[in-house]
Amino acid sequence: MLNCMMLKIFFTAIIITTTGLLSHAQLHPVCDSASLIQHRFFSLCYNEKTEQANWVFHFITPQRLQNKVTGRSDDFRPDTAVKTGSAELKDYKSSGYDRGHLCPAGDMGFDSTAMSESFLMSNMSPQFPGFNRGIWNSLEQRIREWGLLFDTLFIITGPIFYDTTYSFIGENKVAIPDACYKVLLGKKDTALYSIGFIIPNLNGLKDYLAFSVTVDKVEEVTGFDFLSALDDSIEAILEKKKSNIFFD
Fold first, then answer.
1. Which pLDDT tens digit goes with each residue over 186-208?
2. Residue 192 DSSP label
3. Strand partners of residue 153
């Protein structure tokens, strides 16, 4: 793993000088008030048409990652905060798809409430078992390693649909995504680092770095505007490049 000295010497970054620049509201895409769900440890924008979140936003810190006080709660349940009703466990039963976390349970071991919130069905997306337990899990584990390099690592995750005609599972017609994405923004002292990932929802994929993209590319594919509240000049540079810190 790269240490802080290596970070300072080898990696390009955007330098910021404004303290308190980053906040949840500034970093996640716009969402209408009816669809925006603010839980204690993550927020999401729920899409009734696909019965899952357009995006889920959370952050990790070294303190959170190193302060593991609880294991998986596995208390999957509907999200009562979704006024239109979220997906349910029965939608996934015998479907052949995993209840794939968008905000990973593995990021939430620092608090029992955070862990339990991660098992809300609004945080799930239908994923092939080989995807969820393979390349997606490997990326999530690597992100936790990267999280130790930063003061804060902000993470936005969601499904991608390449067509308006979906395949569904369950009575609530939970749409099966074609791919899943992540947008990462790391803050270390006064430097910002960014990268995106778009990974097809398929079994058998291995190399998550092969699916790394710019944040601009994730915006192009999803139609969402990430990091829009940052200064335009900072946002433009961050979104056009993949920061080298995410490659070693």
1. 999 989 999 999 999 999 999 99
2. E
3. 60, 186
